[in-house]
Amino acid sequence: MNLSDLFSIPLDRDPERVAIEFRDASGSAALSYAELHGKAARFAAVLAQQGVSRGDRVAFFLGNRPEFAVAYLAVLRLGAVMVPINLAYRQREIAHILGDAEPRALITETAQRAVLEELDAKEYPVLERVLFVESLAVEMTAEEAPAVAVDGGELALIMYTSGTTGRSKGAMLTHDNVLATVSGLLAAWGWSRADSILVTLPLFHTHGLVVAMHCALAAGATIHLRRRFDARAVVEELGSGSCSLFFGVPTMYVRLVDELRACGAAESLRALRLFCSGSAPLSPETWSAFRDLTGHSILERYGMTETGMLISNAYARSGSTDGRVPGTVGVPLPGVSARIVDTSGDDVTPGAEGELWVAGSNVFDGYWRAPEKTAESFAMDSAGRRWFRTGDLARRDLASGHYVLLGRRHELIIAGGFNVYPREIEEVLETYPGIREAAVVGRPHPEWGEVPFAFVVADGELPEGEVIAWCKTQLASFKAPHGVRVVEALPRNALGKVQKHLLPKDL
Ligand code: AMP
Questions:
Q1: Is 407 helix (H, G, I), strand (E, B) or coil?
Q2: To test ligand 1's pocket by mutation, which of 162, 252, 329, 405 has the most ligand atoms within 8 angstroms of CB?
């Protein structure tokens, strides 16, 4: 089975059901499954005329809109490979991806024209084959391209990682890789065709694309697609009763909690069946505040661009939501194996900290045209099994058996020989009155080698000395930050992940 086969199951079963409902400032549109797939088949004919064929890459520099799904299904139909580009990227980053992936065509929208015009057209032949989705209605005829029978082992996606260090790398995902994540999530989270999901996450990232869009279109559910997240609009829409699911990143939940407190409409969200969070750590404070307001225990899960989804809290355990433990990401999803290992690659003792390694048919093939980076990212065990080194540090909570993430390996602080996990200090700081968000980084120190420093977003002035003294009552003293600086906002990427390398270096 390939992804086109998977997506055609709901088409055959319930062609008239609404697949995508879209609304923005300029209007609204709705596509049934039959219309979505019909347009995709006709768009595939346009792409084929442009010379796109099996194995060719097609770059997307496109915001959330129904044509994103139409164009993606068209690419899959031809056996081609989608390369989504983060819309926040500018000349240098876009040029890197175009140069590396060498796409045959680029699909975009007029809103992105100015950014693309900054690129040197002579350097990128693809810029001669830019398709603006607004003009497709004119270009599409009644002709439908036949579906190419690609094998599950062929590439479906090359997704460039957010790359907080160095140049971003293209993670090669096969049809089988994506199918493994999607089928695991369909089962684990109880998706059905009765579902409808509000999607405000960007579709260029794995969270919006694989977790939300793929699962919904495979389940035969309805996607309420929006250009972007707006807390007030989300509360209104979820409160209107038209959705059963909402997926977000932690910063969205922080804003939803603020909005719900301000508008007092939390009761109206009770009817949803599931709220999920992922892509960055969700603080137990936000989890509890959301539950107190709405009665919902947010289901936190963990995954990566390279692997799809890996670990998740339980959707339901014995008919309740008690299987969800705040501050943990749960247990491996169906088909995923996980280990926590020390620096020699040996399993740590139960409960101890180490790097998380994963294996499963969801795990990507490797990085595009980067065999050395691929080789560095995998380790073979004595039985010949290939493990992906996630670069994330984790431990297992012995009481619940759940995995707890401790931050990225390269962000680990080693103070006087002791391992200090920034995440642990951030969680403590976020319980201090007036501190809304915290990011802890290591800074060089003559005696300790490295020590933790904190950047926080606070409601007002903070007595630095008191915060540090208080941290020492909550944590071993070598973990207490040596300084706490209040900043207006933490630097975050499009998915709300804190970009620690962009924090000031002078602290
Ligand atoms: P991306 O490839 O952009 O999805 O980023 C993947 C990275 O996001 C992981 O390697 C983790 O460091 C982080 N991440 C994803 N989900 C979570 C989570 N629930 N809690 C903490 N970090 C997460």
A1: strand
A2: 405
**In whole angstroms, what is the distance from residue 48 CA to residue 384 CA?**
41
Euclidean distance between CA atoms 164 and 498, whole angstroms: 10
Judge whether residue 180 has pLDDT over 80.
yes
Report the separation in Å between the CA atom of 107 and the middle of ligand 1, taken as the mean of its atom positions.
Answer: 27
Instruction: Give residues with Cβ within 8 angstroms of 282, minimum separation 6.
Output: 250, 253, 298, 300, 326
| Minimum CA distance residue for ligand 1 atom 22 | 280
CA angle 163, 168, 172 (to 5 degrees): 115
Strands 57-61 and 81-84: parallel
Q: How far apart are the first and last CA of the chain?
A: 54
Per-residue pLDDT reduced to its tens digit, 340-397: 999 999 999 999 999 999 999 999 999 999 999 999 999 999 999 999 999 999 999 9
- How far apart, in whole angstroms, are the C-alpha atoms of residue 4 and residue 405? 34
Helices (H) and strands (E) counted in the chain, each on its own, are: 15, 26
- The pLDDT tens digits for 194-246 are 999 999 999 999 999 999 999 999 999 999 999 999 999 999 999 999 999 99
Q: Which atom of ligand 1 is the closest one to the Cα of 161?
A: 2
Residue 163 pLDDT > 80: no
Q: Which residues contact 252 (CB under 8 A, 6 or more apart)?
A: 200, 229, 231, 234, 496
Angle at 132 between CA 131 and CA 135, to 5 degrees: 105
Q: What is the pTM of this model?
A: 0.92
Q: To which residue do tokens 């369909």 refer? A: 186
Name the residue of 304, 336, 402 whose CB sits within 8 Å of the most ligand 1 atoms, as the mutation to test its pocket: 304
Closest CA to ligand 1's atom 23: 280
Tell me if 68 sits within 8 A of 76, measured CB to CB.
no
Report CA-CA distances (Å) from 243 to 108, 194, 322, 352, 474. Answer: 29, 10, 23, 41, 41
CB 493, CB 439: distance < 8 Å: no
Give the C-alpha separation, 503 to 507, whole Å.
Answer: 9
How far out from the chain centre does Cα 191 lie?
19
Backbone angles phi, psi at 444, to 5 degrees: -60, 145
Question: How far from the centroid of its chain's Cα atoms is residue 327's Cα?
Answer: 18
Helix axes 422-429, 464-474, angle to 10 degrees: 120
Residue minimizing CA distance to atom 15 of ligand 1: 279
Protein residue with its CA nearest to atom 20 in ligand 1: 281
